[in-house]
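Input C-alpha cells:
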C-alpha cells in the first residue's frame, strides 16, 4: 500500500483534506494509518509550539533539526503501517520541514543531505495543495484570530512556496502532484481522489 503525503502552506486545507481522505478509505474498507507533523502532543511538539509562538529562539539549523526530529519520530510508525499493507496518510512530512526551514535560512543542500542520511521513506505520492501566500494569511487569521511565527510574514511564505517549487521540480522524496487549493473543499477533495486512484486497489 502507498504512502500518501498532503502538504502545502499553512491554511491550504491539509488537515481538512486528510480527514476527508480517511473517510474515503473507511467507506472503501481500505485499511489506513494516519500520521501528522508536527505532533504537538509530544515533547518535541511542545518545543515546536513554543518556537512558533515566539517563546524560544532558535538558529535556522536548530529549528530544522527540531522539526525534522518530530517527523523522524513518526518514521517507525510509517514503516510499520506499510509493512502491515495499510495506506499511510501523512498530514505534512519532512517535505514541509525542508520548505519552511530552508525559507528560514537553512541550506537546501544540507536539508537534503540530512534526509538522505536519516533514510526518511520516499512517498508514493506527495499532493501539494497550492494556495497564494495571501490566502494562507487570510485563512489562518480567520481560523485562530492570530498568526504564529511562520504565518504572519508574507515574504517568508513566498519563500516557502518557492522552496516547495524546488522540491516539486526535483521530485524530492517522491512524485509530486499539484492541486489548486483556492478551489472549494469539495473540488479539492475530488482532485485528490483522482490523483490517488492509481495507487490502490478496491
Amino acid at each position: 500500500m502507498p504512502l500518501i503525503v498532503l502538504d502545502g502552506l499553512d491554511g491550504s486545507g491539509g488537515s481538512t483534506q486528510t480527514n476527508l481522505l480517511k473517510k474515503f478509505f473507511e467507506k472503501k474498507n481500505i485499511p489506513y494509518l494516519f500520521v501528522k507533523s508536527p505532533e504537538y502532543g509530544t515533547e518535541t511538539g511542545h518545543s515546536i509550539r513554543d518556537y512558533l509562538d515566539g517563546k524560544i529562539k532558535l538558529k535556522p539549523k536548530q529549528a530544522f533539526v527540531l522539526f525534522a526530529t518530530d517527523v523522524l519520530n513518526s518514521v517507525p510508525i510509517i514503516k510499520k503501517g506499510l509493512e502491515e499493507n495499510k495506506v499511510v496518510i501523512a498530514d505534512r512530512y519532512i517535505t514541509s520541514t525542508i520548505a519552511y526551514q530552508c525559507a528560514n535560512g537553512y541550506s537546501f543542500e544540507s536539508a537534503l543531505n540530512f534526509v538522505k542520511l536519516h533514510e526518511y521513506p520516499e512517498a508514493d505520492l506527495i499532493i501539494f495543495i497550492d494556495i497564494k501566500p495571501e490566502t494562507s494569511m487570510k485563512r489562518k487569521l480567520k481560523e485562530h484570530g492570530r498568526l504564529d511565527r511562520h504565518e504572519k510574514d508574507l515574504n517568508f511564505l513566498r519563500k516557502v512556496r518557492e522552496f516547495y517549487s524546488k522540491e516539486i521540480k526535483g521530485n524530492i522524496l517522491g512524485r509530486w502532484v499539484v492541486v489548486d487549493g483556492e478551489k472549494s473543499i469539495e473540488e479539492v477533495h475530488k482532485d485528490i481522489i483522482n490523483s490517488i486512484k492509481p495507487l490502490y486497489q478496491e
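DSSP finds nine helices and five strands in the chain. The mean pLDDT is 93.
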